């Protein structure tokens, strides 16, 4: 049987999650995705109407099949954590009758996947959110900082915790990080730099724990700049892409597919001894000490 992947953080065809889904599909994996509830309707409608057909094309000419789209809000672990007003809002968004329950918390998503598919081999975390990302750290509120950590770092701890019991031994997980965790990138604010530092540190601790507990590998990709929807919200992505092009050892555009291919390698048996690592896919920009 081919491998089965659950990819959290796909809501259009522009981001790293989509590119990772494609690379895994091209390698023969079955693709399940978790899509943020507010973006669910438009994503599913666009998929159904063929809006993504061009970008679903795989190298062999076939179209990537997303076998199931699960609603997901990775800042909530279980229904008890969802405030009443949020529950109501999201029910309206998903045309769901409000019955005091949800099906988009991390625990419920894992339960649904278990019920419908039994197990997975690959878990991908390709999501982040920082409500105050445009504010410098010195101007970030406590709640903004904690929200960034909750959506961008703890969300991975929670996903791995809830999916680990249904992951087949030998499986692997991957997340996406950014160099702002270890070098100062003015403009990447709101505690997002802190969130990425936590994510990278957690990658090591979780590699140990999940390795011992379930023979699961845990790695993160430190990706260079991509003009995704999330990145455009930060506001200076075009500048970062230009900066990278000018200063990186490899002076070429960074393609989302290059990150996708690295993710496919890292979750495959080819990388069977790699765990707890931060792997740079950034045209080498991280190695430079002086802008030229
Ligand atoms: P993207 O917009 O394609 O992906 C972010 C996704 O997160 C979106 O689909 C959004 O709906 C989802 N999301 C936000 N909050 C959520 C929540 N609470 N629950 C579930 N889903 C939620 O943008 P992207 O840039 O491809 O981001 C993917 C990952 O790559 C992120 O971790 C990001 O930090 C990382 N990254 C991006 C860049 C870049 O330049 N774009 C560089 C390095 C790392």
Structure report:
The chain is of the alpha/beta class and 292 residues long. Helix content is 40%, strand content 16%. A 7-stranded parallel beta sheet has the order 3-2-1-4-5-6-7, sandwiched between helices. The radius of gyration is 18 Å and the shape is globular. It binds nicotinamide-adenine-dinucleotide (NAD).
Topology of this protein?
Blueprint: E1 4-8, H1 16-26, E2 30-36, H2 37-48, E3 66-72, H3 84-93, H4 106-117, E4 120-125, H5 142-163, E5 167-177, H6 192-214, E6 217-223, H7 229-234, H8 237-247, H9 256-266, E7 278-281
Helix pairs in contact: 1-9, 4-5, 5-6
The structure holds nicotinamide-adenine-dinucleotide.
Helical proportion, percent range: 40-55%
Model regions low in confidence, pLDDT < 50 over at least 5 residues: none
Q: What is the terminal-to-terminal distance?
A: 50 Å
Physical arrangement of strands within the biggest beta sheet = 3-2-1-4-5-6-7
Number of helices: 9
Anisotropy-based shape: globular
Short key terms for the protein model shown above:
7 strands, 292 residues, binds nicotinamide-adenine-dinucleotide, 7-stranded parallel β-sheet, alpha/beta, 9 helices
Question: Briefly, what is this?
Answer:
By secondary structure, the chain is α/β, with parallel strands linked by helices. The chain is built from 9 helices and 7 strands, in the order βαβαβααβαβαβαααβ. α5 runs parallel beside α6.
